[in-house]
Amino acid sequence: MTDYSYTILIPLVPLAVFLFIGLTGHKMKPIVSGLIGTAGLAFGAILAYITAISYFWGGHEGAGYASIKAFEIPWLHVTKNLTISLGSLIDPISVMMLVVITTVSLMVHIYSLGYMKGEKGFHRFFAFLSLFSFSMLGLVLATNIFQMYIFWELVGVSSFLLIGFYYEKPSAVAASKKAFIVTRFADLGFLIGILMLSFNTQTFDFQTLVSQTGPAISQPGGAAFMGLSVLTWSLIFIFMGGAGKSAMFPLHIWLPDAMEGPTPVSALIHAATMVVAGVYLVARLFPVYALGAPDALTVVAWVGGISSLFAAVIACTQTDIKRVLAYSTMSQIGYMMLALGVSGYGGHDGLGFMAANFHLFTHAMFKALLFLGAGAVIHAVHNNDMSGMGGLRKYLPWTHATFLIACITIAGIPPLSGFFSKDEILVAAFHHNPVLFYIEYAVAGLTAFYMFRLYYSIFWGKETHYHHTPHEAPLVMIIPLLILAFGSIFAGFLPFEELVTSDGLPFELHTEWAIAIPSVLIALVGITVATIMYRKVTAIPDKIAGSVSHLYKWSYHKFYMDEVYLFVTKKIIFRFISRPIAWFDRHVVDGTMNGIAGVTQFASFNIRNLQSGKVQQYAYVFITGALVLVFIFVFLW
Amino acid sequence: MTGTIPLQFFLVISTLMFFIGVFGFLTRRNLITMLMSIELILNSVNINFVAFNKYLFPQHLSGHFFSLIIIAVAAAEAAVAIAIIINIYRNFKSIDVDKVDEMKY
Amino acid sequence: MNILSLFVLVPVLTIVAIVFTKNMKQTRLVSAIGMGIQLVLAAVLIFMYLSERNAGNTATMLFMYDAVWFPTLNIHYTIGVDGISVAMIGLTAIVVFAGVFASWMVEYLSREFFISLILLSSGVFGFFISLDLFTMFLFYEIAVIPMYLLIGIWGSGPKEYSAMKLTLMLMAGSALIMVGLLGIYFNSAPDGGPLNWNLMDISKITIPIEMQRFLFPFTFIGFGILGALFPFHTWSPDGHASAPTAVSMLHAGVLMKLGGYGAFRVAIFLMPEAAHEQAWIFIILTAISVVYGAFGAIWQKDLKYINAYSSVSHCGLVLFAVLMMNETALNGAIIQMISHGLMTALFFALIGMIYGRTHTRMVNEMGGLMKIIPFLGVAWVIGGLASLGLPGLSGFVAEMTVFIGAFQHTDVFHRVVTILAASSIVVTAVYILRVVGMLLFGPIKNEHFLHLEDAKWYERFSTITLIVSIAAIGLAPLWLSDMIGFSLGPIVQKLTGLPFASLF
After folding, report:
1. Domain coordinates of chain C in residue numbers?
2. CA C129, C155, C256 angle in degrees (round to 5)?
3. What pTM did the predictor assign?
């Protein structure tokens, strides 16, 4: 077996870079810190590619791909049986994620050299990017669920720091806070899930957990609460953490706001890598879900399906280009969750599992491309709102071409990569749950529609007059676009059914044309509608919006989810819990304490007259007392 | 001589003196008078000592000794008290005991 | 000379030396040197302790020394340490050291200030090393009394009120503890033989259960008052708000730990049967502390109040874990004490530094400070992240150990309170981020703040000492947790196998 212990360097190098830039960055020229960060990531990417090549194509013993614990050190002994370790676990999904993360992260690093040029806090930006890369790589390499939780939190914090990068802007501060708190709330579920799972199985280790003879799968336990077993509950709680990080309904509200961060950050964290951590988490524990708690998997499927539809509807009406992309991300992740949810374990049953990972891979490419392209547009016109754009194809030819490729890819037109991965998901859904399958058909059409609405509004549509002529982005920003466009086009030809499967064994894949052809047709319909409505300036969009004004309004206001949350947090928690507690503490609890002191003081104030300072009064009391005593002793004793 | 005057006579005298002293001590506001009242009280005790000694334990002298000690202490006390009274007079321009109530609360 | 006695002796000698200093510069230099020696001693002690253990010494207490100082009542000066006390001594040394640098600019009566401060620290050190209950109590009082002077003289705001309140409440706690300790003393030899105060000897016998039922609440509440047990925590917000920087640091960082340590070492260790019977009451109280402190902190505007309520929440977690009475939770309790000690000291130091510049502690009057004083801003963010339990910093290790430990109880009652207590991590995130957002981020609200200077060298020194300690525990918790875990063995042995009474 090949020794993969060097994989531990992949996250450690960015960590070193983070510390180095963080501590000394303000003393060096900005560009130097950027180059150091990029070099660190490039090193990681090379190692990741070496790992992938030697793992997937370097020959392996026995059938299928084994999961290899390449490196592990104990970090903390918690109980006699439970030890939290840090290490690296190499198996198909972690290797795939390594490639995705390092690739996208490297592209974003390179891109940011151009995009962030001249920004204040350039070195801080790269330090945070390195911190994020470290955390995310540590997350995917986790050998045990607690290591995953550790890095899960670190990822959350780096996301917080990067969203709040423009910390002087109140909206960015609010958005970063929101993102952190919402995901933190979800993480509470994750933590409770871990506690339950680890208590019942007495292990954190992934290999033990997913082993078919392991404690989790072989003894799932009987019904414990509301007819579901403890294992099911713990997995549902764990999924809550994943849903928070992956912005699944109803924990999605932080993702659109997170677009306040710099665009490369949105590309890296809020499109390609961090938000798929939830998918990765479910995939990581997939055998436990599939074999031990199918009910939990049903929850995953429905949450994914609802999220994807919900987000696609909202995306059709948003005008901020980054928000459209954010909702699109949420929708696509919903696809992945759904695919996991409808999957079975082993062989062709595991099609959904493979499709989810496949889509994760292709999505990372084309969504990063879309965001970086959007970044180039924003860079050119200094504006996020697509109502202020139009006709940009003349000014930004490269951006236009790559953006178009990405749009076609996400719409699922063959032979670009999005088609293949989405098709597998549809097939998996079809065999499992027809309702979800038709929802996904609808979402496919909506996706094509809103993406091309976005595309036409930016690059076609009305000829907008700009303050200064938009200029194409510098080469350092174009190169990542081209590389990612290349990835978007060709990633679909990777034989995922041989590489990343639920049980590590390859299986035969058949293209089911009966499902593929209608899906392509639906996408084409969506594109056509968008072309009619948005290619030229027409009155059609307003008319349609007017005819379904209620739906339009609800969608435009994101179904008022933010307002609901604001109501709960601001009104209920702040007003009705926190303020009363603060009052209660000052007036009741402290009041009691002060009251005790007050009673003492009152009493002593009143008995002080005994100490009048008048000698004769003392003598009088004394003599009276003496006489009373005499009386008692003489007559009553 | 023993048996001529019963013990009760002495006791009545001393009780009267004692309560006159107490009464004086409680009612007079003049410090000097209060001091005199205290002397009365002390002397009443002296009478008791001597009388009881004589009637109960004529062969002992303990009562006499106590009386002598009390007289000595009373003398010393009177000296100290008068010194204090003079000081009070210097500070308060008065020897009215009601005005001397600094030592309260 | 026993190394442990040095921990009491060095502060005393430092105080003597301070008496002979002439001005503020000399005073603070002497204090810094004295406490520097103390810090080195603590490091040496940790090293010596670990090497003894590695050499295979399995005695419960190491570096023991015993001398009688009041034979009539059999009171000894018995000292000795195990892994728990060593850890606490390390914490104290760091916080006191940082505290001296944080009060570098105390000009008013600086000699008296440093004398009180160091006297307080010598009491704390004495408390952690002594094994004789009476001596322990003596040192406890030495640690509490200077607090009154420190707040009453060098404090701010309604300082007399706060000092009085704090001292009275802690004295009430002392009174309860005294009753408890006397009760333990008179029951220290139920089978006849001489009564004694020795902690280790008493732990070998079983105090009659009727007495335990009576004495346990006294002892636990007595120590709990110092550990900010709900509803006896109200001295904490007022006291901290009025106290000068270094005093807040020492008080929240170290002195409150005496409560947790005492509750664990004396109340639970010596009276485990009653502890198991009555734990549920106190578990409810501490769970309330945890959540209540966190919610209380959300609404506050004064930085010191926020931090005081946060301390209530975190210290509540210490007592909560102590009451769970299994090895993991106890380990978590100790780490939480250390972690909270360091990070709250960091917070109070930073509050002092920010207040010294802006002359306000109201968060709504500040804003955008990150831009003006980046060093302090970054330190604040790190402290905040430690407080809300970010992995890689000490808070995470502590909280997770506590929660895993608490989750080892299978009954519904313990599960519910554990989940309730765990939910505080979300609330903590809310108030920490609220403060970070209002204080450091956003636009600059006050033009006068534009000319603020960033941290001076001594401030950086103090801050960095604390941050490094927080990160060291957070990144490599294994040695600390093992050191504590080894010493917990005998204690847990006494605690296990007893049935828990519970609410439902």
Report:
1. 3-496
2. 30
3. 0.85
Show the domain range for B19. Answer: 7-92
Residue of C234, C422, C443 with shortest CB distance to A593: C234
Confirm or reject contact between A177 and chain C (CB < 8 A). yes
Whether B101 is covered by a domain: the verdict is: no
Cβ-proximal residues to A325 (8 Å cutoff; 6+ apart), any chain? A259, A266, A271, A367, A370, A371, A374, A454
Rounded distance, CA C38 to CA C59, Å?
25
What gap in Å lies between CA A576 and CA C445, rounded to an integer?
A: 29
Q: Is residue B16 in some structural domain?
A: yes
- List the CATH number of the domain containing B60: 1.10.287.3510
With CB atoms and an 8 Å threshold, state whether A611 touches B104.
yes
β-strands A83-90, C75-81: how paired?
Answer: unpaired
Query: Is B104 close to A623, i.e. CB distance below 8 A?
Result: no
Residue B58 within any structural domain of the chain: yes
* Nearest Cα to Cα of residue A558 among A244, A287, A394, A326: A326
Model pLDDT for residues C387-404, shown as the tens digit of each residue: 888 888 888 888 888 988
Cα A496 to Cα A506: distance, rounded to the nearest angstrom: 9
Domain count across chain B: 1
Q: What is the ipTM of this complex?
A: 0.88
**Overall residue count recorded for chain B in this entry:** 105
In Å, how far are A371, A416, A419, A577 from A488, measured between CA atoms?
13, 7, 11, 50
Compute the distance between CA of residue C91 and CA of residue C80 in angstroms, rounded to an integer.
17
The number of residues making up chain C comes to 504
Domain-embedded: residue B31: yes
Contacts of C378 (CB under 8 A, 6+ apart): C370
CA distance A472 to C369: 37
Q: Do B101 and A616 touch (CB under 8 A)?
A: no
* Tens-place pLDDT, residues C234-247: 888 888 888 888 88
